[in-house]
TrEMBL record:
Top-level taxon in the UniProt lineage: Bacteria
SUPFAM superfamilies cross-referenced by the UniProt entry: Proton glutamate symport protein
Locations listed in the record: Cell membrane
Alphabetic keyword roster: Cell membrane, Membrane, Transmembrane, Transmembrane helix, Transport
Transmembrane residue ranges: 7-26, 46-71, 83-105, 154-172, 193-214, 226-250, 319-344, 356-379
Bilayer disposition of the protein: Multi-pass membrane protein
Name of the molecule in the record: Cation:dicarboxylase symporter family transporter
Length: 416
């Protein structure tokens, strides 16, 4: 685990340097903050794009190999059912925690936020207006697998990969084995690339953090202190629940898992991208002792259906906007909103700023001014840091739990 520790330390150092550089530019050279942010953000863009480059082929090869190697359709169904039960339960718990805490803390009634120009939310408003069941279906089922690969539509790739993997599993070893072997080699080759790409992470973290601090400065934390405080308190409660459930299932091995995934958690927090750590998470979960077939099957599904941090944020932000505008919602309306969010959020995996798009669509549905999203846009980056980190934790726990239930969790993974 020496290399892992070096990476973790490098990311921490980059995070501190990024905040320092951003703060220096904001205070000393405010007129240069915007061009500086635009340029230094490229470091983050390079890292994210390097990771995005390998996500589609990695999801496709690992998922196809994982399902094809299972060969037993009953096993595929059993593992899939356990995974979906975890995903649905975790999503409902996350939504409820967000709903309960935003009603208890009432940040929208206390916080005096500056009036934002609704034009800043214009793009999101346009994105959400066309939201319908037809769009939902189109987003899940690929028209062309090549188009899905080109646009990194993870959910569409997952759908195609599951069908292709099941077909291979039923084709007979004579035909399926050469294909499985080829994809297995490709998957391992891509995982080897992960090791190289991850050393770009500290630069990506530095660029992303420096850009945000240079543009907004430290004042934004003061203005939005209550909202951020309440949101991160709600996230802490969600973490407590997830870790408690994880401990009940994994026992003391939970602490080993947390050590394993500390670098992915920090990268997700710093870059606001849970996608950025997908390849590294696959690697670390296999080293932890999770069966590679289970990891290959569940983790891509989790990235589409198990976004615990984003789920909690959706109820929290939606009710917060209603509070800001003084709109009182009955318990029945709030429960209905929760169920709507539960369904609609499952079809937008991989969409940029997906949580915000769904919040806008939901606000419109319940008579809450969707322009209210402009109020939280300035600090959405900081909320997204917590959301992304929580999404990664939720998926790591889901994969480990299902591996344990299947009796496929080794007691000794790779070297620490």
């Amino acid at each position: 685990m020496k290399g892992q520790n070096k990476l973790f330390i490098a990311i921490i150092i980059a995070l501190v340097i990024g905040v320092g550089i951003g703060g220096f530019v904001h205070t000393q050279y405010p007129e240069s903050a915007e061009p500086f942010s635009k340029n230094i953000k490229l470091l983050g863009t390079v890292f994210i794009r390097l990771v995005q480059m390998i996500i589609a082929p990695l999801v496709f090869t690992t998922l196809v190999v994982g399902i094809a190697k299972m060969s037993d359709i009953k096993m595929i169904g059993r593992v899939g059912t356990k995974a979906m039960l975890w995903f649905i339960s975790a999503s409902l718990v996350s939504l409820f925690i967000g709903l309960i805490l935003v009603n208890w803390l009432e940040p929208g009634h206390i916080t005096k936020l500056p009036i934002q120009d609704a034009a800043s939310a214009e793009e999101l408003l346009k994105s959400s207006k066309g939201f319908s069941m037809e769009d939902f279906v189109k987003h899940i089922i690929p028209k062309s697998i090549f188009e899905a690969f080109a646009t990194n539509e993870v959910l569409q790739i997952v759908v195609f990969s599951i069908m292709f993997g099941i077909a291979l599993a039923n084709l007979g070893e004579e035909y399926s084995q050469p294909v499985i072997k080829l994809f297995d080699i490709v998957a391992h080759g891509i995982l080897k690339m992960v090791g190289y790409i991850m050393w770009f992470a500290p630069l990506g973290v530095l660029g992303a953090i420096a850009a945000v601090v240079a543009t907004n400065g430290f004042e934004i934390f003061k203005v939005y202190a209550i909202y951020l405080r309440d949101f991160f308190f709600a996230l802490a409660i969600l973490w407590l629940v997830l870790l408690l459930v994880g401990y009940l299932i994994l026992g003391n091995r939970l602490f080993e898992l947390l050590k394993r995934i500390k670098a992915p958690l920090l990268i997700a927090f710093s870059t606001t991208s849970s996608e950025a750590v997908f390849p590294k998470l696959v690697e670390e979960l296999e080293r932890f002792g999770c069966n590679n077939r289970v990891v290959s099957f569940i983790l891509p599904l989790g990235y589409s259906f198990n976004l615990d941090g984003s789920m909690m944020y959706m109820t929290f932000a939606s009710i917060f906007i209603a509070q800001i505008y003084g709109i009182e919602m009955t318990v029945g309306q709030q429960i209905t909103m929760l169920l709507v969010l539960m369904l609609t959020s499952k079809g937008i995996a991989g969409v940029p700023r997906a949580s915000l798009v769904i919040i806008v669509a939901t606000c419109s549905m319940f008579g809450i001014p969707p322009e209210g999203i402009a109020l939280i846009l300035p600090i959405d980056h900081f909320c997204d840091m917590g959301r992304s980190m929580t999404n990664v934790l939720g998926n790591a726990l889901a994969t480990s739990a299902v591996s344990k239930w299947e009796g496929q969790l080794e007691n000794h993974g790779g070297n620490m």
